[in-house]
């Protein structure tokens, strides 16, 4: 039942597109897989696209926040893209602030932002 | 009483099942995407609280129709240890799980009505309602 989330590499950036509703185990597995992949590929940036995701609860938010901090410890920058209006509204109402997190409207903007950061 | 369906919460997978049921019911009642997300998220938080603090319990979803008002009720019940100090758990930032779960104030903000019935050693029943506008 445990589905692994595919992690793609494009030059020195890892690209992740979350396509379905995350259960707790898949989220934890993703955290480990992404950090392993960072280690193996020496990628310097990560884009996590959430466009198809229609809700995020506090658990998934915590896993996302943690994976961003952990990637930071390993020297990689993470940008989150495609957060839907409904997701943004419920996260803030729930009281969850993903602070100091780089975000962009969509994957394309996210790639540009990350590239700019990495060149700076 | 309106149509009621339920999911027993024993494992993490049941949390997924409960929120899927909730989203489907919310769609049937006619809620838009933002309210669907609010209802789904509230169910996820309440189901996780059952799993974390009581071990097992039940999420019931009821379609409401009172006069001209339509809505949905989430009833989260368990026979766990109960909540010793309800006023405290309703304070923002209070957590006994080290940051797991946004806590009850968050769920209350997502919904319109929120009610906690709890008795030490007997269990907890939380009823959260969202009305269709």
TrEMBL record, chain A:
Pfam families associated with the record: STAS
CDD domains, sorted: STAS_RsbR_RsbS_like (cd07041)
Q: Where is the signal peptide?
A: none
Domain named STAS: which ranges? 3-114
Among InterPro entries, the record links this protein to: Bact_StressResp_Reg, STAS_dom, STAS_dom_sf
UniProt name for this protein: RsbT antagonist protein RsbS
What species was this sequence derived from?
A: Bhargavaea ginsengi
UniProtKB/TrEMBL annotation, chain B:
Phylogenetic lineage: Bacteria, Bacillati, Bacillota, Bacilli, Bacillales
- Key word Nucleus present in the record? no
Cross-referenced InterPro entries, in alphabetical order?
HATPase_C_sf, HATPase_dom
Q: What is this protein called?
A: Serine/threonine-protein kinase RsbT
- A Pfam family (short name) is HATPase_c
Give GO MF terms, alphabetically. kinase activity
Q: Which residues form the Histidine kinase/HSP90-like ATPase domain?
A: 34-133
Tell me the keywords, alphabetical order.
Answer: Kinase, Transferase
Determine the domain of life of the protein's source.
Answer: Bacteria
In which organism is this protein found? Bhargavaea ginsengi
